[in-house]
Design goal:
This protein has five helices and two strands; from the N terminus they run αββαααα. The chain is mainly alpha-helical. The chain has one domain. Strands 1-2 form a two-stranded antiparallel sheet. The protein starts with a helix and ends with a helix.
Length: about 100
């Protein structure tokens, strides 16, 4: 499999394929409508970069940096299960470091 297609497959798993490139809003009648969003692919890439950065900061032993990267995620990305799990792991690591350092 080509490198680009592997990357796009990972993005589809992270965000959800139906949501890439579309924005959902309220129509005139009050019902939900979806329309193309040109900035969505850029936001997905930024979110993926922040998520990977947070993973690596945590692996390097810097959980506060990982939490800072997670805060930079968009609101929609913060609700993903993988993001929430990483946030819990980072918060646990911050607490453990505080206990080890005697704080």
């Amino acid at each position: 499999m080509k490198r680009k297609s592997k990357f796009m497959q990972a993005l589809k798993l992270f965000v959800g394929e139906p949501f890439i490139g579309w924005t959902v809003g309220l129509g005139d009648s009050g019902g939900l409508v979806s329309f193309p969003d040109r900035d969505a692919p850029k936001q997905v890439l930024e979110d993926a970069l922040h998520f990977r950065s947070a993973e690596y900061w945590l692996k390097l032993g810097h959980p506060t940096e990982a939490l800072a990267e997670l805060e930079a995620l968009s609101v929609g990305a913060r609700q993903q299960v993988s993001v929430l799990k990483l946030q819990v792991a980072a918060m646990r690591a911050v607490r453990e470091q505080g206990l080890i350092n005697g704080r």
